[in-house]
Amino acid sequence: MDWTDATAPDAAEIEAMARDAVESLPEMFRDSAKAVVLHVKDFATDDILESLGLDDPFEVTGLYDGIPLTEKSVSDQPEQPDTIWLFRRPILEEWVERGDVALAKLVAHVMIHEIAHHFGWTDDDIAAIDAWWT
Fold first, then answer.
1. What is the pTM of this model?
2. Cα 104 from chain centroid?
3. DSSP assignment string, 77-127
């Protein structure tokens, strides 16, 4: 392959991969997952990093920002929509470091991980069924 004209996938291409992952979900989860707003940015903001207790923006590939479905009440008045943030540069960095996984598969794993948080799963719950995250 001639890499001289190759460029890294942009935010729109990462978003398309993430949306494909949502489309691949079982029907019973798909509509709820589609209701979550998706943003793809190069890096987490300083505020996000601070809230996570992180200094290095390459340490976070994705983030669910919202109230999990298991904690929602019909009487709640949401201040903002549930949102998933994917961070392009850390995802690309992890992809290069792994060297053994397709980029679309990595994006799907990050997206599904964040969607699992929307459904009320903890990191420990996710790791218990998906060795990728251990």
1. 0.89
2. 12
3. --SS--EEEEEHHHHHHHHHHH-SS-HHHHHHHHHHHHHHHHTT--HHHHH
